[in-house]
């Protein structure tokens, strides 16, 4: 009993320390991010044992807020959560729930086009949103015929529409869904291009034209039209992937690296 009580006490202390450190990490504004002190400094600051500090760091590590480097140049690297890390954890929940790509696609068709509408209603759209989307479309147009690189750039358009949405809650929630889908579609595009199965150039040019039309509606402030065009375009672009993997379960293969998913079929992992 004394041993178990000591362990429970150590865990509670570690959770208290982890809670304090978590608050410091999350309170950073991005320009002056919190840097995790050394274990010696943490022991001195909190007045607790080394095992409690190590347990606290392990808690933060499992949450993806800290990466511990071993060896002579070891230390703890701090990570503030973003859409990519949120997408990873959401993806785990979807995979555990056996959610299919078809289900994810319908969810995106419901929420992502609303972001286009919100962008069209933003008072500062001409200064903040329109130039960023136009630059992406111009870059995408230059990549027509390149296969995988074109899809990567085209997906950035969708990610930008969400990232530029004025409402922060919408940005984070829908951004997680978009990050999951982008990972699936980019993996498909790279493999399809390598096998000579990528859609022809005419279809890529149509994607660019549709992106320009969405931009036109956003710039003009026509929210309903922007949402309508975005929804139709999203359904059409998803068809390539869903024709092959509609009933496949969303699968997470890479954690917190910017690649949050991959095609859930062994054929595509060769």
List the helices and strands and how they pair.
Blueprint: H1 2-26, H2 39-46, H3 50-62, E1 66-69, E2 75-78, H4 83-96, H5 101-121, H6 125-128, H7 130-142, H8 148-163, H9 168-194, H10 201-220, H11 223-245
Antiparallel strand pairs: 1-2
Helix pairs in contact: 1-3, 4-9, 5-9, 5-10, 5-11, 7-8, 7-10, 8-9, 10-11
Considering the chains and any ligands shown, give keywords for the structure.
270 residues; 2 strands
Name the quaternary structure.
single chain
Strand content: under 5%
- Average pLDDT confidence is 85
Which outline best applies?
A: elongated
Describe this structure in words.
The chain is built from eleven helices and two strands; from the N terminus they run αααββαααααααα. A two-stranded antiparallel sheet has the order 1-2. Helix 5 crosses helix 9, helix 5 packs across helix 10 and helix 8 runs antiparallel to helix 9. The protein starts with a helix and ends in a 25-residue tail after the last helix. The C terminus is likely disordered.
